[in-house]
Amino acid sequence: MHQDVEQILYTEEDLRRRISELGAQIAADYAGRMPMLVSVLRGSYIFMADLTRAIDLDLTVDFMAVSSYGSGTVSSGQVEIKKDLSDSIEGRDLIIVEDILDSGNTLYYLMDVLRARKPASIRICTLMDKPERRAKPITADYVGFTIPDAFIVGYGLDYAEKYRNLPYVGVLKPSVYAK
Ligand code: PRP
């Protein structure tokens, strides 16, 4: 375990098992269709890679990067598109793939932007959900794990851009971000 991690919340095996269930559920729900999975970078890149491989269905992928203004551990309502999608989404069945749904500010903004581009449907798939932190009326259609309000890192999630490469999800030691 990394020295800055206090506790492992989900092991590689926990993640593999749950993502395989999510993939099977999505494949069943979208049978006969070809969804477009949109990964919201950067946090979701590892989840996206594993989730798409767990969906036994034809699908396409695209990527978007957004950042919220504001500092520290809380996102603000102000969101900026840093990298837009490569393809048109008109008439497509979109599944937005997120690593974590927290205040909901990011997705509240993004849903608005994407809806205006006339997809056939939009659903949200998040690996982790912190419902107690929600500030905007956003609900995910697929949730890997509902988690308490702890500072978590790993499996794509960072603190100050570090720890994304940890293969598990862990709770960061408070001494690290209190510095
Ligand atoms: C994280 C996460 C979501 C957002 C969720 O991204 O990937 O996009 O925060 O928070 P919210 O529900 O409060 O808006 P972050 O801004 O940390 O960027 P990153 O994906 O590049 O790490």
What's the SSE blueprint?
Blueprint: E1 5-10, H1 12-29, E2 36-41, H2 45-53, E3 60-68, E4 79-83, E5 93-101, H3 105-115, E6 121-129, E7 142-146, E8 152-153, E9 169-172, H4 174-177
Parallel strand pairs: 2-3, 2-5, 5-6, 6-7
Antiparallel strand pairs: 1-9, 3-4, 8-9
Helix pairs in contact: 1-2
1-O-pyrophosphono-5-O-phosphono-alpha-D-ribofuranose binds at residues 40, 42-43, 67-68, 75, 98-106, 158.
Offer a quick outline of the entry.
The protein has helices spanning 12-29, 45-53, 105-115, 174-177; strands at 5-10, 36-41, 60-68, 79-83, 93-101, 121-129, 142-146, 152-153, 169-172. It is built from four helices and nine strands; from the N terminus they run E-H-E-H-E-E-E-H-E-E-E-E-H.
Helix share, percent:
10-25%
Bound compounds = 1-O-pyrophosphono-5-O-phosphono-alpha-D-ribofuranose
Give the SSE order as H and E letters: EHEHEEEHEEEEH
Distance between the termini: 21 Å
Beta-sheet strand percentage?
Answer: 25-35%
- The computed structural class is alpha/beta
Residue-averaged pLDDT:
94
What overall geometry do the principal axes of the alpha carbons give? globular
Please give the largest β-sheet: 6 strands, mixed
The helix tally amounts to 4
Strands of the widest sheet, in order across it, are: 4-3-2-5-6-7
Structural Rg = 16 Å
Counting DSSP E segments of at least 2 residues, the number of strands comes to: 9
Low-confidence stretches: none
